[in-house]
Known about the structure:
UDP N-Acetylglucosamine Acyltransferase, domain 1; serine acetyltransferase, domain 1; 8 helices; alpha/beta
Amino acid sequence: MSPLTRFTNDDAICLISKLEDSYFALPRIQHISKAYLPSRPAIYGLIDRLFGVLFPGFFGPQDLTRDNIKYHIINELQELNTALARQISQCMSLDAGGPSDAIEHQAVEATYEFLLGLPRLRALLATDVLAGYQGDPAAANTDEVVFSYPATIAIATHRMAHIFWNLKVPLMPRIMTEHAHSRTGIDIHPGATIGPSFFIDHGTGVVIGETTVIGERCKLYQGVTLGALSFPHDDQGQIHRQYKRHPTLEDEVVVYANATILGDVTIGKAATVGGGVFLTRSVPPGCTVSNKAVELKYRNRPNSLDRGYTADWQI
Protein backbone atom coordinates (compact mmCIF):
# COMPACT_ATOMS: atom_id res chain seq x y z
CA MET A 1 0.00 0.00 0.00
CA SER A 2 1.35 3.44 -0.91
CA PRO A 3 2.17 5.68 2.09
CA LEU A 4 0.26 8.49 0.39
CA THR A 5 -2.99 6.68 1.09
CA ARG A 6 -2.49 7.40 4.79
CA PHE A 7 -3.02 11.12 4.21
CA THR A 8 -6.40 12.52 5.12
CA ASN A 9 -7.65 15.82 3.73
CA ASP A 10 -6.80 17.47 7.04
CA ASP A 11 -3.26 16.06 6.90
CA ALA A 12 -2.77 17.37 3.39
CA ILE A 13 -4.14 20.82 4.24
CA CYS A 14 -1.89 21.03 7.30
CA LEU A 15 1.20 19.94 5.35
CA ILE A 16 0.57 22.38 2.51
CA SER A 17 0.03 25.22 4.97
CA LYS A 18 3.26 24.49 6.82
CA LEU A 19 5.26 24.27 3.59
CA GLU A 20 3.77 27.53 2.34
CA ASP A 21 4.60 29.26 5.61
CA SER A 22 8.17 27.93 5.48
CA TYR A 23 8.71 29.32 1.98
CA PHE A 24 8.19 32.88 3.16
CA ALA A 25 9.75 32.38 6.59
CA LEU A 26 13.01 31.27 4.90
CA PRO A 27 13.23 33.58 1.86
CA ARG A 28 16.88 32.78 1.08
CA ILE A 29 15.93 29.31 -0.18
CA GLN A 30 12.88 30.13 -2.26
CA HIS A 31 12.50 31.97 -5.56
CA ILE A 32 8.83 32.96 -5.82
CA SER A 33 7.44 36.07 -7.55
CA LYS A 34 10.87 37.00 -8.90
CA ALA A 35 12.59 37.09 -12.27
CA TYR A 36 12.81 33.73 -13.99
CA LEU A 37 15.94 31.74 -13.27
CA PRO A 38 18.29 30.65 -16.06
CA SER A 39 18.03 27.01 -17.11
CA ARG A 40 20.86 24.80 -15.94
CA PRO A 41 20.05 22.07 -18.50
CA ALA A 42 20.04 24.70 -21.24
CA ILE A 43 23.44 26.03 -20.13
CA TYR A 44 24.84 22.50 -19.97
CA GLY A 45 23.61 21.97 -23.51
CA LEU A 46 25.26 25.21 -24.62
CA ILE A 47 28.58 24.04 -23.16
CA ASP A 48 28.33 20.84 -25.20
CA ARG A 49 27.56 22.79 -28.38
CA LEU A 50 30.44 25.16 -27.74
CA PHE A 51 32.76 22.17 -27.39
CA GLY A 52 31.53 21.10 -30.82
CA VAL A 53 32.51 24.50 -32.23
CA LEU A 54 35.85 24.66 -30.42
CA PHE A 55 36.83 21.04 -31.11
CA PRO A 56 34.90 20.11 -34.28
CA GLY A 57 34.96 16.42 -35.09
CA PHE A 58 35.86 15.50 -31.51
CA PHE A 59 32.58 16.74 -30.05
CA GLY A 60 29.27 17.18 -31.82
CA PRO A 61 28.69 15.82 -35.35
CA GLN A 62 31.21 13.25 -36.57
CA ASP A 63 30.58 13.62 -40.31
CA LEU A 64 32.24 17.00 -40.82
CA THR A 65 34.37 17.65 -43.90
CA ARG A 66 36.01 20.63 -45.59
CA ASP A 67 32.94 20.82 -47.78
CA ASN A 68 30.32 21.06 -45.03
CA ILE A 69 32.20 22.61 -42.09
CA LYS A 70 31.24 26.15 -43.13
CA TYR A 71 27.53 25.37 -43.12
CA HIS A 72 27.88 23.58 -39.79
CA ILE A 73 29.52 26.67 -38.26
CA ILE A 74 26.85 28.99 -39.67
CA ASN A 75 24.07 26.88 -38.21
CA GLU A 76 25.76 26.48 -34.82
CA LEU A 77 26.61 30.15 -34.44
CA GLN A 78 23.08 31.23 -35.36
CA GLU A 79 21.56 28.95 -32.75
CA LEU A 80 24.21 29.71 -30.13
CA ASN A 81 23.70 33.44 -30.65
CA THR A 82 20.02 33.18 -29.76
CA ALA A 83 20.34 30.62 -26.97
CA LEU A 84 23.30 32.27 -25.26
CA ALA A 85 21.64 35.69 -25.30
CA ARG A 86 18.51 34.18 -23.73
CA GLN A 87 20.40 32.54 -20.85
CA ILE A 88 22.63 35.57 -20.29
CA SER A 89 19.53 37.78 -20.16
CA GLN A 90 17.96 35.48 -17.57
CA CYS A 91 21.10 35.64 -15.44
CA MET A 92 21.31 39.42 -15.69
CA SER A 93 17.60 39.78 -14.95
CA LEU A 94 17.97 37.67 -11.84
CA ASP A 95 20.87 39.80 -10.65
CA ALA A 96 18.97 43.02 -11.36
CA GLY A 97 15.68 41.86 -9.85
CA GLY A 98 13.79 41.70 -13.11
CA PRO A 99 14.04 41.98 -16.91
CA SER A 100 14.37 45.24 -18.84
CA ASP A 101 15.21 46.48 -22.32
CA ALA A 102 18.64 47.55 -21.06
CA ILE A 103 19.37 44.03 -19.84
CA GLU A 104 18.28 42.55 -23.17
CA HIS A 105 20.73 44.89 -24.91
CA GLN A 106 23.56 43.96 -22.50
CA ALA A 107 22.89 40.27 -23.07
CA VAL A 108 23.07 40.69 -26.85
CA GLU A 109 26.32 42.64 -26.55
CA ALA A 110 27.89 40.06 -24.20
CA THR A 111 26.93 37.25 -26.59
CA TYR A 112 28.41 39.19 -29.51
CA GLU A 113 31.72 39.75 -27.69
CA PHE A 114 31.92 36.12 -26.60
CA LEU A 115 31.29 34.67 -30.04
CA LEU A 116 33.77 37.07 -31.68
CA GLY A 117 36.42 35.74 -29.29
CA LEU A 118 36.03 32.07 -30.26
CA PRO A 119 39.01 32.02 -32.69
CA ARG A 120 41.29 33.44 -29.96
CA LEU A 121 39.87 30.94 -27.51
CA ARG A 122 40.64 28.05 -29.89
CA ALA A 123 44.24 29.24 -30.22
CA LEU A 124 44.58 29.37 -26.44
CA LEU A 125 43.08 25.89 -25.99
CA ALA A 126 45.52 24.53 -28.58
CA THR A 127 48.38 25.53 -26.26
CA ASP A 128 46.71 23.66 -23.38
CA VAL A 129 46.26 20.50 -25.47
CA LEU A 130 49.89 20.60 -26.57
CA ALA A 131 50.98 21.13 -22.95
CA GLY A 132 48.99 18.05 -21.99
CA TYR A 133 50.64 15.96 -24.68
CA GLN A 134 54.15 17.22 -23.96
CA GLY A 135 53.69 16.97 -20.21
CA ASP A 136 52.33 13.44 -19.99
CA PRO A 137 54.37 10.53 -21.35
CA ALA A 138 51.23 8.37 -21.13
CA ALA A 139 49.52 10.48 -23.82
CA ALA A 140 49.68 8.65 -27.14
CA ASN A 141 48.76 11.74 -29.15
CA THR A 142 46.96 15.06 -28.92
CA ASP A 143 43.69 13.44 -30.02
CA GLU A 144 43.74 11.47 -26.79
CA VAL A 145 44.28 14.64 -24.76
CA VAL A 146 41.33 16.38 -26.44
CA PHE A 147 38.94 13.47 -26.44
CA SER A 148 39.54 11.77 -23.11
CA TYR A 149 41.42 13.95 -20.60
CA PRO A 150 39.37 15.51 -17.80
CA ALA A 151 41.80 18.44 -17.77
CA THR A 152 40.66 19.38 -21.28
CA ILE A 153 37.01 19.50 -20.18
CA ALA A 154 37.79 21.48 -17.03
CA ILE A 155 40.24 23.96 -18.57
CA ALA A 156 38.19 24.61 -21.71
CA THR A 157 35.02 25.14 -19.68
CA HIS A 158 36.89 27.48 -17.35
CA ARG A 159 38.27 29.51 -20.25
CA MET A 160 34.76 29.93 -21.68
CA ALA A 161 33.35 30.85 -18.26
CA HIS A 162 36.21 33.27 -17.61
CA ILE A 163 35.25 35.26 -20.71
CA PHE A 164 31.70 35.61 -19.41
CA TRP A 165 33.13 36.51 -15.98
CA ASN A 166 35.13 39.36 -17.54
CA LEU A 167 32.02 40.46 -19.44
CA LYS A 168 30.26 40.82 -16.04
CA VAL A 169 27.72 38.10 -16.74
CA PRO A 170 26.45 36.93 -13.33
CA LEU A 171 25.76 33.34 -12.26
CA MET A 172 26.27 31.60 -15.61
CA PRO A 173 30.09 31.37 -15.34
CA ARG A 174 29.73 29.60 -11.99
CA ILE A 175 27.08 27.23 -13.35
CA MET A 176 29.47 26.33 -16.17
CA THR A 177 32.52 25.66 -14.00
CA GLU A 178 30.55 23.76 -11.37
CA HIS A 179 29.20 21.55 -14.16
CA ALA A 180 32.79 20.83 -15.20
CA HIS A 181 33.63 20.22 -11.54
CA SER A 182 30.89 17.60 -11.28
CA ARG A 183 32.13 15.90 -14.46
CA THR A 184 35.86 15.92 -13.75
CA GLY A 185 36.49 16.48 -10.04
CA ILE A 186 38.46 19.63 -10.98
CA ASP A 187 37.13 22.80 -9.31
CA ILE A 188 38.28 26.01 -11.04
CA HIS A 189 36.54 29.24 -10.10
CA PRO A 190 35.64 31.26 -13.22
CA GLY A 191 37.38 34.31 -11.76
CA ALA A 192 40.80 32.63 -11.75
CA THR A 193 43.24 33.99 -14.34
CA ILE A 194 45.18 31.27 -16.16
CA GLY A 195 47.87 31.74 -18.78
CA PRO A 196 48.47 29.63 -21.90
CA SER A 197 49.93 26.10 -22.00
CA PHE A 198 48.26 25.02 -18.76
CA PHE A 199 47.93 21.35 -17.85
CA ILE A 200 46.43 19.42 -14.94
CA ASP A 201 47.70 15.85 -14.80
CA HIS A 202 45.12 13.31 -13.54
CA GLY A 203 43.17 16.18 -12.03
CA THR A 204 40.83 14.75 -9.41
CA GLY A 205 40.61 16.93 -6.31
CA VAL A 206 42.25 20.05 -7.78
CA VAL A 207 40.85 23.33 -6.39
CA ILE A 208 41.74 26.74 -7.87
CA GLY A 209 40.25 29.75 -6.09
CA GLU A 210 38.67 32.90 -7.47
CA THR A 211 41.63 35.31 -7.27
CA THR A 212 44.30 32.79 -8.27
CA VAL A 213 46.68 33.94 -11.01
CA ILE A 214 48.56 31.27 -12.97
CA GLY A 215 51.24 32.17 -15.49
CA GLU A 216 52.34 30.47 -18.68
CA ARG A 217 53.39 26.82 -18.99
CA CYS A 218 52.34 25.81 -15.47
CA LYS A 219 51.44 22.28 -14.43
CA LEU A 220 49.42 20.91 -11.52
CA TYR A 221 48.90 17.34 -10.37
CA GLN A 222 45.91 15.75 -8.65
CA GLY A 223 44.79 16.96 -5.24
CA VAL A 224 46.43 20.39 -5.48
CA THR A 225 44.68 23.24 -3.65
CA LEU A 226 45.30 26.89 -4.51
CA GLY A 227 43.12 28.38 -1.81
CA ALA A 228 42.59 31.18 0.69
CA LEU A 229 44.26 31.23 4.08
CA SER A 230 41.63 33.10 6.09
CA PHE A 231 38.54 35.25 5.68
CA PRO A 232 38.62 38.65 7.43
CA HIS A 233 35.27 40.03 8.56
CA ASP A 234 33.81 43.54 8.74
CA ASP A 235 32.21 45.17 11.78
CA GLN A 236 28.92 43.39 11.04
CA GLY A 237 30.60 39.98 10.94
CA GLN A 238 30.32 39.63 7.16
CA ILE A 239 33.34 38.27 5.30
CA HIS A 240 35.24 40.55 2.93
CA ARG A 241 34.94 39.30 -0.65
CA GLN A 242 36.65 41.60 -3.13
CA TYR A 243 40.36 41.23 -2.43
CA LYS A 244 43.31 39.09 -3.55
CA ARG A 245 43.29 36.06 -1.28
CA HIS A 246 44.62 33.22 -3.45
CA PRO A 247 48.11 32.38 -4.73
CA THR A 248 49.96 33.63 -7.79
CA LEU A 249 51.98 31.10 -9.76
CA GLU A 250 54.50 32.68 -12.08
CA ASP A 251 55.52 31.06 -15.37
CA GLU A 252 56.69 27.43 -15.52
CA VAL A 253 55.70 26.48 -11.97
CA VAL A 254 55.05 22.81 -11.22
CA VAL A 255 52.96 21.78 -8.20
CA TYR A 256 52.92 18.08 -7.38
CA ALA A 257 50.13 15.93 -5.98
CA ASN A 258 48.23 16.91 -2.83
CA ALA A 259 50.19 20.11 -2.25
CA THR A 260 48.26 22.94 -0.60
CA ILE A 261 49.16 26.59 -1.21
CA LEU A 262 47.09 29.12 0.71
CA GLY A 263 46.81 32.90 0.73
CA ASP A 264 48.07 35.77 -1.37
CA VAL A 265 51.54 34.33 -1.88
CA THR A 266 53.70 34.17 -4.99
CA ILE A 267 55.42 31.04 -6.27
CA GLY A 268 58.30 32.35 -8.35
CA LYS A 269 59.10 31.48 -11.93
CA ALA A 270 60.18 27.87 -12.58
CA ALA A 271 59.74 26.92 -8.91
CA THR A 272 58.64 23.42 -7.95
CA VAL A 273 56.35 22.60 -5.03
CA GLY A 274 56.64 18.98 -3.96
CA GLY A 275 53.85 16.55 -3.21
CA GLY A 276 52.03 16.95 0.09
CA VAL A 277 53.61 20.32 0.90
CA PHE A 278 51.53 22.78 2.96
CA LEU A 279 52.64 26.29 2.02
CA THR A 280 51.53 29.71 3.28
CA ARG A 281 54.44 31.90 2.22
CA SER A 282 56.04 32.96 -1.05
CA VAL A 283 58.74 30.99 -2.83
CA PRO A 284 61.60 32.61 -4.80
CA PRO A 285 62.03 31.80 -8.51
CA GLY A 286 63.72 28.54 -9.33
CA CYS A 287 63.37 27.04 -5.85
CA THR A 288 62.15 23.56 -4.96
CA VAL A 289 60.00 23.17 -1.85
CA SER A 290 59.60 19.74 -0.32
CA ASN A 291 58.68 18.15 2.97
CA LYS A 292 61.36 16.73 5.23
CA ALA A 293 61.77 13.02 4.55
CA VAL A 294 59.62 10.97 6.87
CA GLU A 295 60.83 7.94 8.79
CA LEU A 296 59.38 4.74 7.37
CA LYS A 297 59.15 1.58 9.46
CA TYR A 298 58.79 -1.87 7.95
CA ARG A 299 57.67 -4.87 10.00
CA ASN A 300 57.52 -8.43 8.71
CA ARG A 301 54.08 -10.02 8.91
CA PRO A 302 53.77 -13.25 10.93
CA ASN A 303 52.60 -15.14 7.84
CA SER A 304 55.43 -13.96 5.61
CA LEU A 305 57.20 -16.53 3.48
CA ASP A 306 60.38 -16.32 5.56
CA ARG A 307 58.85 -17.02 8.96
CA GLY A 308 62.21 -17.02 10.67
CA TYR A 309 62.89 -13.40 9.70
CA THR A 310 61.30 -11.10 12.27
CA ALA A 311 63.53 -8.03 12.44
CA ASP A 312 62.08 -4.51 12.23
CA TRP A 313 63.73 -2.10 9.81
CA GLN A 314 63.62 1.70 9.81
CA ILE A 315 64.55 3.93 6.93
